[in-house]
Specification:
The complex is a heterodimer of chains A (59) and B (329). Chain A has 59 residues and is an alpha+beta fold. Chain A has one helix and one strand. The chains are: A alpha+beta (59), B alpha+beta (329).
Chain lengths: 59, 329
């Protein structure tokens, strides 16, 4: 099975439970975590690259 | 080389986890930082035997063996047992293949291990705090949904069907796994199943019993992690990506969706704790969705969900919180 289409074609004939056909696939070599530009969404507060240290005293 | 002498320990805290679990190491590092008296049983590599037990005095010791060492754990001082992930492996001495092929021998070993495992759970539960689900941490999704309804959670309309033609054609449905996702591999790819929209055209007239839910239009999903009475949650704006609209685990690494700390209302917290009481859980990761109508829908609970990412989004080191909670019991 090379892709999702082949997977679905092969497995749909067995009449397995419906969820078996909701498939997503990954290349085997990329089984480990993929490299991303950002750990979180660019606009997330959890993205510390966007954090600006306050330089004025807040009264 | 295995050493011949056993090391004896009398810990106050027993941690059971597989070394494959990413949180295991961090939790134990925090326990060490707080100078807690703990011992870890690595479900991945340690082999266990009940070394000695006296039913009259209730005194017990365990023999833990791995490739390098063996330990005798006197568990009379144990106050807390935390089962993070994994199952205990009881020692079974190697026997010949001919014997192993006999069903009666396999049955004997299966029931031998099962009885010891059940007894150990019973023993710990009757005399100390046990956190986490014993065994494979498997929880029945269908029973969970029924119980969630009883504690007044809203749940999506749910069906079990072998004939999809009995569903309304003008309504959108999703199909979920009854138990665990199916993971298969071919020479080229690894295939994994997710929650997804139901495409009626793909199925023959009769299929195996399938779990179907009516699709609900959501604004965002909420992941809630509970450890004893502490509750942390984040909102997952999975609608931002086409791929993750139905299931947020279908992740796009190039355009990650937004995740933000979130405070769930008090009434929802109370219902979560009530459901945990019914299901006999003291830790778990809950999935909810927040709909366009401003309603919270309960989706499912995972007794051994990953919580590290949720902690990072919320700005809390949950491994530290867990270590502190375990020590304070």
């Amino acid at each position: 099975m090379k892709n999702n289409h082949e997977y679905i074609t092969q497995l749909k004939k067995y009449g397995l439970p419906a969820d078996v056909l909701n498939v997503n696939s990954f290349p085997i070599k990329q089984n480990t975590t993929q490299k991303t530009n950002h750990l979180y969404s660019k606009i997330s507060r959890a993205n510390w690259n966007n954090f600006i240290m306050p330089f004025k005293k807040i009264i | 080389m295995k050493t011949t002498t056993s090391i004896t320990k009398q810990p106050e805290i027993l941690i059971i986890s597989s070394e494959e679990d990413s949180n295991y190491k961090s939790i134990t590092e925090w326990l060490a930082y707080y100078k807690a008296d703990f011992f870890c049983i690595n479900a991945y590599s340690d082999i266990l035997s009940i070394h000695s037990y006296d039913m009259q005095t209730q005194e017990m010791s365990l023999l833990i063996e791995n490739q390098n060492q063996e330990f005798i754990i006197d568990i009379n001082n144990v106050k807390t047992v935390f089962i993070r992930k994994g199952i205990l492996n009881f020692k079974v001495n190697p026997i010949s293949d001919a014997l192993l092929k006999q069903h009666a021998v396999l049955d004997y070993i299966y029931h031998y291990e099962k009885s010891l495992n059940e007894f150990l759970e019973y023993y710990f539960r009757s005399r100390c705090n046990v956190i986490g689900l014993w065994g494979a941490a498997f929880i029945n999704k269908l029973i969970v949904l029924e119980e969630a309804k009883k504690v007044d959670f809203k749940i999506p309309e749910t069906f079990l069907k072998t004939n999809l033609n009995t569903l309304k054609t003008n309504t959108s449905y999703i199909s979920k796994t009854v138990a665990i996702p199916l993971i298969t591999t071919s020479n080229h790819k690894k295939f994994m199943t997710y929650t997804g929209k139901l495409d009626f055209s793909l199925f023959p007239k009769r299929i195996m019993t399938s779990l179907i839910q009516k699709e609900i239009k959501k604004l965002f999903e909420i992941r809630v992690f509970v450890f004893l009475k502490k509750i942390y949650s984040m909102a997952i704006f999975s609608q931002m990506n086409k791929e993750s609209v139905v299931d947020y685990r279908v992740y796009n690494n190039d355009t990650p969706y937004l995740e933000e700390p979130y405070t769930i209302p008090n009434y929802l917290q109370k219902k979560i704790l009530k459901l945990m009481e019914v299901l006999k859980l003291n830790t778990g990761s809950f999935d909810f969705m927040y709909t366009e109508d401003g309603e919270y829908y309960f989706l499912e609970v995972n007794p051994v969900g990953q919580f590290g990412h949720l902690g990072r989004v919320c700005g809390v080191d949950l491994n530290k919180v867990i270590a502190q909670e375990i020590i304070s019991l």
